[in-house]
Amino acid sequence: MISRRSFLKVGGLSISTAGFVSEILTGSAFAQDANLQNMVSGVKPMAPEDYEERLEQARKIMAKNKMDALFVSGGSDLGYFTNVNWFLSERTFGALINRKGKTIWVWPSFEAESAREMIPKDQELRPWEEHENPFKLIGGVMKDLGVPNGRLGIAPVTRSFIVFGLRKDVPEIELVNGAVVTEGCRGIKSPKEIGYMDLANKITKLAYREGFKQLKEGMTPRDLSNVISTAHQQMGVRGNGGPQFGPSTAFPHGSRIPRTLHDGDVVMVDGGCSVEGYQSDVTRTIVYGKPSDKQKLVWDIVKRAQTAALKTARPGVPCEDVDHAARKVIEDAGYGPGYKYFSHRLGHGIGMDGHEFPYLVKENKLKLQPGMTFSDEPGIYIYGEFGMRHEDCFVVTDDGARFLGGMETTAIDKPFGEA
Hints:
Layout: E1 9-10, E2 13-14, H1 48-64, E3 69-72, H2 76-82, E4 94-98, E5 104-108, H3 112-118, E6 124-128, H4 134-144, E7 151-154, H5 160-169, E8 174-177, H6 179-186, H7 191-213, H8 221-234, E9 239-245, E10 266-275, E11 278-279, E12 282-287, H9 293-312, H10 319-332, E13 347-349, E14 356-360, E15 373-376, E16 379-382, E17 386-389, E18 392-396, E19 401-403
Helix pairs in contact: 1-6, 4-5, 7-8, 9-10
């Protein structure tokens, strides 16, 4: 059961933030908080049994969809199912997850020794030399599995030349979309995965808080980004924050116009980090100096929209309803219709990728399930003036939803609530 009270329990490690609360620094504008400590040193990685559970779930979905095998190439899908991390290459390589037994690998021969360092010894590796046809090798694997004319799922990020090569050289195999397997497994997070994401989101919020302590007239977005990145490093991860100042905050993904910080500027930071490969994604928006009445009004509207979305999210609710709940608050406040001011969907799935299936957007009828994780990031963007966005990731629980990492923003001058 995933309850609202679940909190940062990862492989037996419980994290309390009490030891990481620090006083506002004095002195150098870009000094670092000596009280920030490594927060990931005790985190346990995924175990072999975790990967076997994932493979078993994949086989169940494959059987339900009459799929004989799934070809997974480089990227996060490969890491998710096999704990093997490899780049997307012009050479065909990958894993054939199948319903008959152990995963079988197709790999360029000159990389075979590298492969053997990562692949379990009880899994078969079939290398191909540079002049050989890897697509026919995949066809040979299907034949040996007893399904020479079978249905082979292709993971979504597989490069197109592999699909075209299989169609041309192994036409007897039926290629089908493997997303039903990859998304069906990855869309629901385990308690351990949620624990990683809880911690990643907490770390990013603490790093932002460190950065906001050091805002200074005339500083550049890069100055602030460097403080936030260094704070992430002090807590044991690589992370970032993409700051925007003033009118640039009206651009949802930032403006290329150089700006420095001045009194009354809106400050927006959007970024994250990862813990054991699981991502955070956080946006905080404040005002440097005294906010105007309009800035306070828009900030409050966006916060009410974020809260409305979180309250709507619960098992059985369609994804589009969560988007609608936030959008209605913004439109009713006069910042509509549609995408005029709130110019993007409410949120995206998140896990090993910063943006992944499923999405909180109009016309997505998919119903929420416990363990799904999303960003909740409504915004209002007024070009020539400023933008406001609040973003926290949340997990769907058995009876509702809760934000990951705590530290929910509560007011324009309280971007992290109570840590």
